[in-house]
Amino acid sequence: MNEITTADVLAADPGVQIIDVREGDELATGMIAGAVHLPSGSVLERAGELDSSRRVIAVCHGGGRSGRVAAALTELGYDADTLVGGMSNWAAEGLPMVAPE
Q1: φ, ψ dihedrals at 7, nearest 5°
Q2: N or C: which end of the chain has fewer CB within 10 A?
Q3: Active site residue 27
Q4: The pTM is what?
Q5: Angle at alpha carbon of residue 54, lines to 72 and 98, rounded to 5°
Q6: How many domains does the chain have?
Q7: Which one from 60, 70, 73, 80 is the annotated catalytic residue?
Q8: Nearest-5° angle of CA 14, CA 16, CA 21?
Q9: Is residue 25 part of a domain?
Q10: Sheet strand arrangement including 3-4
């Protein structure tokens, strides 16, 4: 597991899987386009929904939860990283966000 920057996310391969591990009520502030919502408490039981052959980037509000999720996924054999500073850093940089689906 690596801690990556917003620039790394923007430059990531289009096949990367971005998972937003925040709780549902936290999504109102917006999500990264293309991200899938998998709350941190359900990621391990839903890990089978992820493609183990594709890189995963976990995102939360500030980076703590996504770091724990990425570490757990890495132990399961996924190539998983976490976004440093989470969505608060993404928003502070003025990067685009979309409404949750």
Answers
A1: -60, -40
A2: C
A3: no
A4: 0.95
A5: 85
A6: 1
A7: 60
A8: 135
A9: yes
A10: 3-4, 80-83, 56-59, 17-20, 36-37
Helices (H) and strands (E) in the chain, counts: 4, 5
Per-residue pLDDT of the chain (101 residues; tens, 9 = 90+): 999 999 999 999 999 999 999 999 999 999 999 999 999 999 999 999 999 999 999 999 999 999 999 999 999 999 999 999 999 999 999 999 999 98
Instruction: Find the DSSP H helices in the chain.
Output: 6-11, 43-46, 64-75, 86-92
Is there a domain that residue 101 lies in?
A: no
Residues in the chain: 101
What is the CATH classification number for the domain harbouring 63?
Answer: 3.40.250.10
